[in-house]
Amino acid sequence: MFHIRSSIIIHKMGCSFSFSALWMVFNLVLALSAMAPRADARAFFVFGDSLVDNGNNNYLATSARADSPPYGIDYPTHRPTGRFSNGLNIPDLISEQMGTEPTRAYLDPSLTGNNLLVGANFASAGVGILNDTGIQFLNIIRIAQQLEYFQQYQTRVSRLIGSAGTRRLVNEALVLITLGGNDFVNNYYLVPFSARSRQFSLPDYVRYILSEYRKVLRRLYELGTRRVLVTGTGPMGCVPGELARRSRTGECDVELQRAGALYNPQLIQMVNGLNSEIGSDVFIAANTMQMSFDFIFNPQAYGFVTSKIACCGQGPYNGIGLCTPLSNLCPNRDLYGFWDAFHPSEKANRIIAQRLFTGDDKYMTPMNLSTILALDTKT
């Protein structure tokens, strides 16, 4: 298109069109093209909790927020963004690997125009599969609301590129959803004898939340998504926040690890069952617990000095409360597996993201993201 238009301009202007003027036109076209998404770039949508929230909770009256220093200390702007990280989180790193700009939080006012075509992040810190998970955080975007926002997003995009274009954009998009951990640490095990722990034995609770999660994933499929990465829970009993509450010797909490050991294999079974029912590998399960175990149980192999003590926090293992300007803060975040009481450091997130792209069947079922991207490029 540039070549056609520039030749018409030159033809009309004749010899009076100077090289400097042509250079100015060329730079203008380059600038305009840089503002638009790449034609071959796929959209990216994110749903879930604080592990993948890119700042939606900044716009909510909630205690589950990360919009004050030292959050974001290693982000490119060195300022807090609402990400529960010292820098980039897993969605950022997936976008980086795909060569696209990071998805913006859906509630971010700058998510308009062509920015919508990049995708959107609907995640909200504190949420779970169940509506009663995270009630202590008050105003958060529960998963049903995230799906409603996704429908609203599609309506907005239809005004830009039409309904057929929107359907194609969503069909071809990559989707990441991260849920489940809060249903244990901020619900079933939040307090002794919680309402859910009185209602269900642990095995029954796992089956119940997975049956609810299946409805969420099925709804994502109905809304047009065709490549959905579903992460399992992390090592819930090994994070500094749970070590501070439950461990005297620094060993992972047995009960929370038992919960993850029950939940994660059944999540993979549920994903495989959905794919069989649909007749296509729509859902991809990621064993993020195993990915995290790699650096938790052998931190030195990954350049960490510790995977037990959070870089930022207070109390035992720096695991009490959120990271604040008054917290202990390590000088080198790359030496710590965990940034705060519950969230990996950017360096640890990079290890997890790399496993998502290149991991074998120990980590990814039925295939990794590199295989998905290669397959989808050919079709």
From TrEMBL:
<dbReference type="InterPro" id="IPR051058">
    <property type="entry name" value="GDSL_Est/Lipase"/>
</dbReference>
<keyword id="KW-0442">Lipid degradation</keyword>
<keyword id="KW-0378">Hydrolase</keyword>
<keyword id="KW-0443">Lipid metabolism</keyword>
<protein>
    <submittedName>
        <fullName>GDSL esterase lipase At5g33370-like</fullName>
    </submittedName>
</protein>
<dbReference type="Pfam" id="PF00657">
    <property type="entry name" value="Lipase_GDSL"/>
</dbReference>
<dbReference type="InterPro" id="IPR035669">
    <property type="entry name" value="SGNH_plant_lipase-like"/>
</dbReference>
<dbReference type="GO" id="GO:0016788">
    <property type="term" value="F:hydrolase activity, acting on ester bonds"/>
</dbReference>
<dbReference type="InterPro" id="IPR001087">
    <property type="entry name" value="GDSL"/>
</dbReference>
<dbReference type="InterPro" id="IPR036514">
    <property type="entry name" value="SGNH_hydro_sf"/>
</dbReference>
<comment type="similarity">
    <text>Belongs to the 'GDSL' lipolytic enzyme family.</text>
</comment>
<dbReference type="GO" id="GO:0016042">
    <property type="term" value="P:lipid catabolic process"/>
</dbReference>
